[in-house]
Structure prediction request, 296 residues.
Amino acid sequence: MAAKLIKGAEVAREIRAELKEEVELIRSKCGVVPGLVTILVGEDPASQSYVRGKQKTAHELGFHSVQDSQPADLSEEKLLALIDRYNKDPQIHGILVQLPLPRHISENRILLAIDPRKDVDAFHPVNVGKLVIGDPDYLPCTPAGIQELMVRSGIQVEGAEVVVVGRSNIVGKPISIMLMQKGRGANATVTVCHTRTRDVKSHCRRADILIVAAGVTEYVKGDWLKEGAVVVDVGVNEVGMTPEGKRILKGDVAFDEAVQVAGAITPVPGGVGPMTITMLMKNTVRACKLQGNIED
Ligand code: GUN
Prediction:
């Protein structure tokens, strides 16, 4: 029997409708709207597409949204000065610097320069540390999207054997920490696999919930799955273009095989992707409330 599709796009729409109401409430009661700036350095087409999606959603939710595009040869000092300006701008509650940055700019130096209270990506070491000790102000967007998608889809995470494939700072590390914590949609037993793991397949075959953020197109095959497993595919790999110029995307899981074995699976596109953007919006609303001392 084919797996149930976990439709992130639909769940994301539901959360955005809730956020839109909250934004309107904050505006009418407190006279402020959440402000988000997205900073893009250079002209990478994939990054341009992601930033457009974030801006479009921010606009739809009634945010004050600013898109700041900078040339690829922008110096690190100029970018630091720009961040400093937004750190001090009372209309901006969230600052997102789209990654990757050009090679001449140190990602670590840039992420450290963002005021942790405005760090809606939750990449600043202060926010990473708060996450690890179980006291986060913001959850990183893709892991938060995965967790919320599982909760709202009725997937039992507590006590589950979760296997994460990938150890990136953006997905693998934070999702593994979040799912092993105490709390809603957590309390799992987590294994993290990476490029030096011996026999990744045997780990995957044990998973009740398999989260794949390997960055390799169709890395996980159908026979790597336990019958009935929940498969969350975080991969976004461009494999070509349609005649109309739209990007053709594939995940890190061989979907056509996996759908025959899994109990439930996220499609690519339309799975985790829309949840990531939605969690960024949620963080920006939270940033606005924290900075304006507005109660939940
Ligand atoms: N590049 C790929 N994913 C992300 C993300 O979640 N945030 C930022 N800022 N850049 C990214």
Q: What stands out?
A: Residues 137 and 147 are 16 Å apart (CA to CA).
